[in-house]
Design brief:
about 170 residues, alpha/beta, Rossmann fold, six-stranded mixed beta sheet
Length: about 170
């Protein structure tokens, strides 16, 4: 499984839009990399974390590996969304996208790639870090009443999300 994570989307998933100065933002990014690294140790998977660099970044895309997590900053003039879409296309159905961005979610759905909302993934990461022994069953899905017939069947998107959450 390969997780493609919308960095700033995940970073701001648990707080209101707070303006951070550059030092605070750098610290928050490092903290996020640390948390994802711990998650990766507990649940072996590839993780690619994508951040925007389009306003004040570099002339070319910057890639680096930190504690087992691949970190990508988009180049000047290119948004992280474009990089994520390119990665979705490259990795295909074997990837899982972590974002709450509607545009990316729609794009991933068209290519049958599972999308996990940022806040739900962050709950998994937090739970995994706090309870290493039982993190596989940490976030049980709410049960739905099972009835007969197609009217009770979940949508493809919801079924894909639930299956992905079980694997995480």
């Amino acid at each position: 499984m390969h997780l493609i994570v919308d960095g700033y989307n995940l970073l701001y998933s648990d707080r209101s839009a707070v303006q951070l100065n550059s030092a605070e933002l750098r610290w928050e990014r490092e903290r996020l990399v640390d948390r994802l690294s711990v998650y990766r140790q507990l649940r072996p998977c590839e993780i690619t974390l994508v951040f925007d660099g389009w306003q004040g970044g570099w002339n070319r895309e910057m890639r680096e590996r930190k504690r087992g997590v691949e970190v990508i900053f988009s180049r000047i003039g290119e948004r992280a969304d474009e990089v994520i879409k390119r990665l979705i296309k490259e990795k295909g159905a074997g990837a899982v996208v972590v974002t709450s961005d509607r545009e990316i979610s729609r794009y991933a759905d068209k290519l049958a790639v599972a999308v996990v909302p940022s806040n739900r993934f962050m709950e998994k990461v937090e739970r995994a870090a706090s309870d290493e022994k039982d993190f596989a069953g940490a976030m049980e899905e709410e049960r739905i009443s099972k009835g007969k017939g197609p009217s009770r069947r979940l949508s493809k998107r919801e079924r894909r999300l639930r299956a992905t959450l079980k694997r995480l």
